[in-house]
Write a structure and sequence with these properties.
The structure holds 2 protein chains of 2 kinds. Chain A is of the alpha/beta class. In chain A, about 50% of the residues lie in helices and about 10% in strands. Chain A has 20 helices and 10 strands. In chain A, the strands form 3 sheets. Chain A has a 4-stranded parallel beta sheet. Chain A has a 4-stranded parallel beta sheet with strand order 7-6-8-9. In chain A, helix 4 crosses helix 7. Chain A is globular, with a radius of gyration of 20 Å. The termini of chain A are far apart. In chain B, helix 1 runs parallel beside helix 5, helix 2 crosses helix 3 and helix 10 packs across helix 11. Chain B has 17 helices and 22 strands. The radius of gyration of chain B is 23 Å and the shape is globular. Chain B is α+β, with helices and mostly antiparallel strands. The chains are: A alpha/beta, B alpha+beta. Chains A and B meet through helix 4 and helix 5 of A and helix 9 and helix 15 of B. Bound molecules: flavin-adenine dinucleotide and iron/sulfur cluster (SF4) (2 copies).
Chain lengths: ~350, ~525
């Protein structure tokens, strides 16, 4: 009922369907599109959805909302429907794995043993929340962030035994587990006023559901350059890079962070920035789609990487662990995580 | 010239009910309807299957009739009734003594009303205002008036009755105090048809006086306009009534995927004055939002109005005239074989039809007795079809297409693109549309809409209209532009009073499509060719 109320102002222009990345890959017969799912489906909810896994194909890229002339909360509506139809028994394989990992390890992925320094400083002023992927999968992000924060003179600490922020659970509609993760984390967060995150997914989660106002690492580094805390090295050769605009930065935590990322890149000599034709085209890494419909996610990643190759860049930079993970699966061209790249060319201001 | 025992004028619910009753008693009946079935007050009513509670205090006879018929209809016509139940709620400043009188009057008239606590009411209806102070449960229900009428028409046809829409009565030929011939224009082809009936039944609702005048008679009646607004989304589980002396803006009826709020009461001079106004829309939203505040922020989709033909022409206002019905045997006025029936409610149509049929039967000397309170309206149970279609879609189709569900589903699964959704507001499949396009009763796009619901949803035909049109002209020589212009005109009339927020935006977009892209305005002006060239 409440869903219909919020999406009741649809004028059926289908602008949303036109821009939806999943529709562009699967066609309207494979994915009926935001209008059908977020606006029409709730009107006929009873019985209809139960058999449909289709709703889990949305990558929550928020692109549809961006173009909707009525500014309808389409992605939220889809998430709400996922929540309404959540049933542990009918989860697809990949989503089941997420739930199992959360139950067993408190993380959305299975942790791998690796050596790392402990950063739980007692007098730390700000909290760094690495997130599951940076800590255990694309570990360079974790290492680079720690180094960079130190170079920038940020007095940070990492809490012991933090748990997944819950973003993957939100994407599969598991609101109960989400709630309990949130409780655990909030205790760990204690009195820290400032939280720094590596992953736009975590950032969004804290912002929208924890009632906190976290900073993405890009914002912290940008501030640091304003105060001249970072010095940039010159690469040996010219590097041509393009910046991927992750959905969960561009359309949820804020497009200004994209601008800041460009500002940072411009500070590195010999880095040549090439603008992609469609820089904020979704890479398929979000919304639980990699775990749930890995083929679909792969096709989206491949499409993005082909764009990058066509533009003639050496590197595609992605300021999001999920994007990096998924884009690399395509095995086309080269992808580097943004912070990791920045770290390679910075040193501490003496 | 065609002979028949009974000629019924009017294909609203009253005429359809009479046709069914008499046909089942074995009479030869022909029903003629000047436009489409249920295009009069029937299709423009609030869709409430009254429990009788609304009339309990002031109009006990209507209340008792409604209470009895409510039970019967839920039994014989469940396919078109959503038995949602209803609530009567009083708000903070309402007259609380009225609530006590209400309860005792319900008891006296046989209306099953029961007081529940405010907490219980809020649990049943989470969107109710927190300002309510008392609440009563009643067996109100939501009824689809189109379907109920079509159900009666089809049942009459099954019993060998003839029912013709787009057949308008133009003239009577009277001979020695008897209507000898009835001259009817067939609006499909403009031809004239002549009927020679033994008895003529005038069931033309708001037009009753006009039909009576064809026999130089006049009927004392008042025409009373009532307006309603369709609000997008089903905001309540059941019906919500304001507990006070019946007044304007008292009722919210959940219907399919919308909520219908109403009504008003304004005396008018002609049955054609059936346009809702902006003032009425504002008023209705304001009044009903006191009960369900979300109405104020929901999208108003369209507004429509129906004309109540109320018995009596005295000076009392619309709300005070009894909602019971009146049966007039015009033999008292010098015409032997002429009966008029006016007033009543959709809820009490069956009872009205029974009384009329009793009178007709005694005049004709028929012996068969009325079975309409016992026999289900549709003889074939259609619950178990169709593993081929997702069960919720199938059950919606079964509900909408009654007797024809089998054939309709055949079209959906058999035709090329038959399962495609044509109208996404109401989830109507192309197969349904194709079936009805080929049905003898369907002439206009709006006929198609009444039978499938395509175009009734919140975009008001914005998306489906071309899908409907292409199905419509596939198998016929109908002029697509003419069909389109007529349909859009009719829709515009309903949308005009709600042109704000969501619907305003919608209409701008449609305007762009219909006139900017398809140049329909130029077509109406007559310079379509020129416009296309420029
Ligand atoms: C605003 C409003 C709200 C209402 N809400 C409810 C409600 O919620 N519940 C309820 O129970 N009742 C309700 N009613 C009452 C109910 O709608 C009517 O009692 C009922 O529909 C009357 O049906 P009818 O067949 O007598 O008249 P109509 O439906 O008006 O049928 C008369 C038919 O005669 C046809 N006709 C006219 N002239 C000719 C001609 N020359 N030749 C051939 N045909 C002709 C017309 O086209 C028309 O279709 C409401 C009424 C109104 C106006
Ligand atoms: S959020 Fe993105 S993937 Fe999901 S429906 Fe909207 S446009 Fe499509
Ligand atoms: S863009 Fe918005 S208004 Fe247009 S069809 Fe999609 S949901 Fe409806």
């Amino acid at each position: 009922m409440s869903v219909t109320l919020k999406t009741g102002d649809c004028i059926k222009c289908s602008a949303c369907n036109m821009v939806c990345p999943v529709v562009s890959i699967d066609g309207i017969s494979g994915f009926s599109g935001p209008r059908n799912l977020a606006v029409d489906l709730p009107r006929f909810f009873a019985g209809r959805m139960i058999s449909s896994q289709e709703i889990f194909k949305c990558t929550t890229c928020w692109k549809c909302e961006e173009v909707c002339p009525s500014s309808l909360p389409l992605s939220d509506s889809i998430l709400r429907l996922r929540e309404m139809m959540f049933d542990e028994k009918t989860l697809v394989e990949g989503h089941k794995r997420i739930v199992e990992n959360i139950d067993r390890y408190g993380r959305s992925i299975k942790p791998q043993l690796r050596e790392r320094r402990v950063y739980a400083k007692r007098e730390a002023e700000v909290l760094y929340f690495p997130g599951c992927i940076s800590e255990m999968r694309v570990t360079s992000i974790f290492d680079a962030t720690v180094e960079l924060l130190e170079k920038a003179g940020v007095n940070f600490g990492i809490p012991d035994n933090w748990v997944c922020c819950g973003a993957p659970l939100e994407k599969i509609g598991d609101s109960n587990r989400l709630e309990s993760l949130k409780e655990t984390n909030l205790i760990k967060f204690g009195s820290f006023e400032e939280i720094i995150t590596s992953c736009p997914g975590c950032t969004t989660q804290f912002l929208r559901h924890y009632d906190r106002d976290p900073l993405h690492t890009i914002e912290v580094l940008w501030e640091a350059t304003k105060k001249n805390r970072l010095k940039f090295k010159t690469p040996k050769n010219n590097v041509r890079v393009a910046l991927h605009h992750p959905c969960h930065i561009k359309r949820t935590i804020g497009p200004q962070i994209i601008d800041q990322a460009y500002d940072l890149l411009q500070l590195i000599p010999r880095v040549k920035i090439v603008e992609l034709e469609d820089p904020d085209k979704c890479c398929g890494g979000g919304g639980g789609v990699v775990a749930g419909f890995s083929d679909l996610a792969l096709k989206l990643a491949a499409s993005k990487m082909r764009d990058a190759c066509r533009s003639g860049v050496d590197l595609l930079l992605a300021p999001c662990p999920f994007c990096v993970l998924n884009l690399r699966r395509a095995n086309i061209g080269k992808v580097e995580e943004f912070i990791t790249f920045i770290n390679m060319y910075t040193e501490r201001e003496a | 010239m065609q002979r028949t025992e009974v000629l019924i004028i009017g294909g609203g619910i009253t005429g359809a009910g009479i046709a069914r009753d008499l046909a089942c008693r074995g009479a030869e009946v022909v029903l003629v309807e000047g436009s489409d079935f249920s295009n009069g007050a029937t299709g423009r009513c609030h869709g409430m299957l009254h429990s009788g509670a609304r009339y309990a205090v002031n109009d006990p006879r209507s209340a008792a009739e409604c209470a009895a018929e409510n039970t019967i209809l839920k039994r014989i016509a469940n396919f078109c009734i959503e038995d949602t139940g209803g609530l009567f709620v009083s708000l903070k400043n309402d007259d609380l003594d009225y609530a006590d009188r209400f309860l005792s009057s319900c008891k006296k008239t046989g209306v099953a009303a029961k007081e529940i606590t405010v907490q219980e009411a809020l649990k049943k209806e989470p969107m109710l205002s927190r300002e309510i102070v008392r609440a009563f449960e009643v067996p109100d229900a939501s009824v689809d008036p189109f379907l109920l009428t079509l159900g009666n028409i089809e049942s009459a046809r099954e019993a060998n009755g003839i029912a013709l829409n787009y057949h308008s009565v133009r003239r009577f030929e009277i001979d020695g105090g008897v209507i000898d011939r009835v001259i009817v224009e067939n609006l499909r082809n403009g031809s004239v048809e002549i009927y020679k009936p033994e008895i003529v039944v005038n069931a033309s609702g708001a037009w009753a006086n006009k039909i009576a005048s064809l026999a130089n008679l006049s009927i004392g009646m008042t025409l009373d306009k009532g307006s309603m607004v369709v609000i997008n989304g089903r905001l309540t589980n059941g019906l919500i009534n304001r507990l006070r002396k019946p007044s304007n803006g008292d009722i919210i009826v959940p219907s399919y995927s919308s909520s219908i709020i109403g009504t008003t009461s304004i005396q008018v001079d002609s049955p054609l004055e059936n346009k809702a106004t902006e003032e009425e829309v504002d008023f209705l939203i304001r009044e009903t939002a006191m009960m369900i505040p979300n109405i104020a922020i929901s999208r108003a989709v369209r507004a429509y109005a129906g004309i109540r033909p109320l018995c009596g022409s005295d000076r009392s206002t619309g709300r005070e005239i009894s909602r019971t019905f009146q049966l007039i045997d015009h033999s008292e006025h010098g015409i032997e074989n002429f009966i008029s029936v006016i007033g009543g409610k959709l809820t009490t149509y069956r009872l009205m039809a029974e009384k009329v049929s009793d009178m007709v039967a005694s005049k004709l000397g028929l012996s068969g007795s009325c079975r309409t309170a016992i026999d289900p309206l549709l003889s074939v149970a259609k619950e178990n079809i169709h593993a081929k279609i997702a069960s919720s879609i199938a059950s919606r189709i079964v509900r909408k297409s009654c007797l024809f569900a089998d054939e309709v589903i055949q079209r959906c699964t058999g035709e090329l693109r038959g399962m495609e959704v044509v109208c996404s507001c109401e989830e109507v499949l192309r197969g349904e549309v194709i079936y009805w396009c080929n049905h003898q009763d369907v002439k206009e796009l709006s006929d198609l809409m009444r039978r499938t619901r395509a175009g009734m949803g919140y975009c008001q035909g914005g998306l489906c209209i071309f899908g409907l049109l292409s199905a419509m002209i596939d198998n016929s020589d109908r002029d697509p532009m003419e069909l389109l212009v007529r349909f859009i005109k009719e829709r515009e009339k309903g949308v005009e009073p709600v042109l704000f927020r969501g619907q305003l935006k919608e209409e701008f977009f449609k305007e762009h499509l219909i006139n900017g892209v398809y140049h329909l305005d130029a077509y109406s002006r007559g310079d379509y060719e020129k416009d296309l060239e420029s």
